[in-house]
Task: inverse folding
């Protein structure tokens, strides 16, 4: 069963992100570490993703006049390809609608397989840069 809770331990949440993203940071020679991740997520709205009561990922959102920016959606590697990411996107949409947003936006590394998840869930590429696709989807 998939559920969500407000993040209580930012350090553990940052660890999930750092482990998931390390290969991308290395690929693009980005000098990040777990404490940098923790500093950057502190100002976001953070939720843990739980699978059968175990924290397996993180959702991080930011809101502005343009809608909801999915700053991070992470699922630990051993829990990927089980529908957790797709369910977490639906939770992002639910939260965004509750906050009055009409659009979800995100940025994804071009080399990330998560790009296909977002594409399957209705996100379209608005622009691209050397490393990233910037994607969005209208919500109700």
Result:
């Amino acid at each position: 069963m998939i559920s969500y809770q407000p993040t209580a331990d930012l350090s553990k949440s940052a660890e999930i992100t750092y482990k998931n993203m390390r290969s991308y940071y290395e690929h693009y020679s980005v000098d990040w570490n777990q404490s940098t991740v923790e500093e950057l997520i502190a100002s976001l709205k953070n939720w843990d993703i739980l699978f059968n009561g175990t924290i397996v990922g993180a959702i991080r959102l930011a809101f502005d006049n343009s809608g909801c920016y999915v700053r991070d959606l992470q699922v630990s590697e051993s829990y990927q390809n089980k529908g957790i990411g797709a369910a977490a996107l639906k939770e992002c949409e639910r939260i965004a609608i509750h906050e009055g947003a009409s659009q979800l936006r995100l940025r994804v590394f071009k080399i990330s397989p998560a790009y296909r998840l977002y594409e399957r869930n209705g996100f379209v590429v608005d622009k691209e840069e050397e490393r990233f696709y910037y994607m969005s989807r209208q919500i109700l």
